[in-house]
Structure formats: structure tokens, C-alpha cells
Amino acid sequence: MIKTTVKIEKFLQHKTPCLVLFCPESKKLAGDLKQVDQALNGPVASAFKEKRFEGKSNQTLLLNARGTMKADNVLLVGIGKPKEVTDENLRQAAGTASNLAEASQFKKITFYLADGELEKALTKDKNLASGDVVRAVVEGSHLALYHFDTYKSVEKGEEPNRIEEITLLSDSKSALPKFKQASDRATKIAEGVYRARDLISEPSNTATPSYLANTAKKIAAKHKITCKILNEKEMLKLGMGSLLGVAKGSHQPPRFIILEYKGGKKNEAPIAIVGKAVTFDTGGISLKPPANMDEMKMDMSGGAVTIGTLQTVAALKLPINVVGLIPSVENMPGGSAIKPGDILTSMSGKTIEVLNTDAEGRLILADALSYAARFKPRAVIDLATLTGAVIMALGHFAAGVLGTDDNLIDNLKASGALTGERLWQLPLWDEHDKATKSDIADLKNIASPGVGAGTTMGAAFLRPFAGDQPWAHLDIAGTSWGAKKPYTPKGASGFGVRLLVNFLEQEAKRRK
Ligand code: BES
Ligand code: ZN
Ligand code: ZN
What we know:
Shape: elongated
Radius of gyration: 24 Å
Largest sheet: 9 strands, mixed
Helix content: 25-40%
Oligomer: single chain
Strand content: 15-25%
Bound molecules: ligand BES, zinc ion
Low-confidence stretches: none
């Protein structure tokens, strides 16, 4: 992680190549911004006047200080109308500033967060506590500065510029402990997101089910997490015919990863998180079209996010019990692959007619949801890149959420709103359930042509396996990859880690 420090100093005295100030959209320059403008001889006021910079969300103005203050450059970044500013505006603004600073060849960046005016303006009449301001900024900056560059060779002297240090600056000593705590927490969360992004970005010739299992083991050993891996034989014994059916077309053996974090009371029922981890989805025999098929290395995002979440929950020592379950397979059209029309018997005993081998996520999740019952969980939340249909419905802007318990769904949606990882609920009606019935088996894995409602049909298929406790299904096919935000680079977003960590944190509080 990029080194992050807190410094207490007057901002005109602070030496840095790039001093970032957050600027609200308003008619008049006030407070710190006015001071900076005066120090620099008025370039901010004239930018406002000429409408080159007005403090609109993610607008930037980079000014050379020309020796008028200790900082070499001042970077103003807009956060929008003061009354409307949320954590997400700050996260994005911090991301925008970080990206511009890195592209401008700076090696260090300082965010000035007065313990005064800006904070007061932002925290007044809002749920934004002052610690949240620091958290949002540190999160946004770390997340924007993520790079997956394992495989890129660089010639000597041609290394791309990287920010090496983030400083949080305040002018009041009393801010120090609060700033440190908030920054530490945000860094741990960003580490969890980095973990998920690393795993998702890793190509499928490296990131196989065994690789995921070994990585999970290593992470568990570093934190207070136990990790158990089930191999093919053990899964066969458990009767996981649905999961094993998908695995049959590949030379890569499947793995079932079980992570347990016990931060809560000994006998307290855990929250189970189940993450789809198809390390590559060719579609099997009902093969996918070739365009952008490379992106299907991301079909293990649910599993990666589960690992990133457990790592973060353990790093933050949250007082709650959490189980992570990750069914992992590669969906290939090998000689032993399942074929359309084949019938599989799942761990629950229910039989499934496979009408399209590309609807494989629900097949592995069916057995994973059955297995979750062993932990007698308080609630089960699954995350899966399950359907292309969710991208049709919501684009890359929100994940779909469906389930059996409105209270659970509402709490998840609230965490989504706070973290900027938005959820949008879709219905799950009896009519959908009916459309999952097969003529010759208990269920079929796709609905008849013309039924539509692709994302709901995925959830409707899962419902009979999900048990009686509250259950929510998050379809992250759109949000996991290709989301365009200042703090999410091209490719993997790690969507879900921040949402789930927030949810689990709130859940621990609700239970007190
Ligand atoms: N992994 C895909 C879903 C997906 C699509 C993820 C696009 C990310 C981006 C899933 O296994 C799949 O193939 N779903 C099918 C289901 C269909 C056959 C009912 C789909 O969405 O087309
Ligand atoms: Zn598929
Ligand atoms: Zn898939």
C-alpha cells in the first residue's frame, strides 16, 4: 500500500509537490480557499469568474505556486454544492485529484482537510461525521492509485510515475488521533479491495480454482481466519453433483473454499457470504460468442470479493462471526463436459435439467447454498457475476439485489448507498419460481424462451437452495468490471468489499 501519513501544520507552511484542496461549488470564495487565492495572487477568483473552474464535482484546477507558498503546486478539486456533498463526492474528488497528480508526475500528494470550515459545511445537517470525511478521501485516493502491473515489462528510465506517499494535513492538533484512526481504517479497507482486484485481474491461466484456494489459505494464515479446502473427492462424498457437473469439462480440478472468521461471541450465528468463483467461463458446450470473451476471467469476482471482505473484517477485528464459502470451477467444453439436456443431482437432492451450460454460476451456487446451512447462519448473502441481463437492466451503475427478506435487503441497500456501491432491488415473484420447473427434473437452469427477466430467473433458480434464514442475492455482473468512476481503474472494481464490510460493521452494532 502507498504510505499514508498525517501531519499537523498550517497549509501555507506545508512543503509538498502537490497540495490538494477540496472546493465546494459556491458563488464566493471563503476561508482557506480565499487564503490560497490571495497567496497565489488571485488565479482562483479569476478561474471562477471566467467559469474555467467553479467547484463542480470532479472539476480540477492545477496551479503552480511560483514560490508564493511552501507547496510547489496547488490542485483544487470540485466537490459540488456544499449542501449536496456526500461521501461519494469526496471519494470521487480524491480519486480525481490522485489520478491527475500521478499523471502530472508528482510523487507525493497532500490532502488538506482543515478541521474547520469545509468539514463543518459538509458535516452540518448530514450523516457525514468528520471522521467519514477523512475516510472517504483516503479510500478514494488509494482506490484510484491501484495498478495491476505484474506482467508489464518496463525499460530502465521508462518507469511510469507512481505516487509514493499520501499525506493528510490538518491545522489543528486535536484532529490527529481522529485522522490517524480514520486513515488506518480506510487503508485496511482499500487493502481488501486491492486484494479482490488483484485476484479478478489475474488471468485464468494463473488464477485457477487451486490458485484461489492456495491464496485463500495464505491470507487466512496471516489473519485470524481458519481456512478449509474441499477437493473433488470430498465434494463427491457430500453429493455436490451440481457443482461437479460444471467442473467436468475442465482439466482444472474444482475447489470449495471455506473461510471462518470468529470475531463475535462463540455461539453467535454467523453471517454466511457465498461467492461465485468461475475462474473462466467459456460457456461450456453452449459456448459463448468470442467478442470480449477474455473478460470472463472476471467470473470469479464473487469469490474474490468474499476473500477481500473476510481479510478486511479480520484486519479491522470486527466483533462478528462471518463464514465465507467459495465454490470454484472452470467452465470449459472438454470431452467430459456436461451437455444440454443432462440432469444433475444437487447436494440438496433436487435434480436439475441443464438446458444451457452457460448458466453455470447458479449450478455451483446451488450446492454452495446447501452447504451454507451447516453453519446455521443468521443470514446468507451471495455475490455472483450471474447474468448479462443485469447489465441490460442497470448498466455498470448498480448491482441487482433480490432475496427473501426485505429487512436484510434494506440494510444492504443502505450500506450500498453509504459506500457508493449501489444496489437496486428487482422482484422475485411466484411466477418466476414456476418458470424454473422442468418437465422431467425438479428444476431447469434456464427458463423457456420468452420468459425474459434474466436476472430474476437466476435468483428464482437459487431460492429453493437458499434455506429458511434471510437470504439476499447480489448480481454483480455489471458492477464488477467496466464501471467508470474516478476511483475505479479500467477493469476490475472490487465492487462489494466496501459494501459488505460496512454492512457487517453495522450488523455488529445492530446486534449489540
Ligand atoms: N458469467 C456469465 C454472466 C456474465 C455476463 C458475467 C456478462 C459478466 C458479464 C454467466 O455465467 C452467464 O453466462 N449467464 C448467462 C445466463 C443465460 C444462459 C441464462 C447470460 O447471462 O447470458
Ligand atoms: Zn456462463
Ligand atoms: Zn458465469
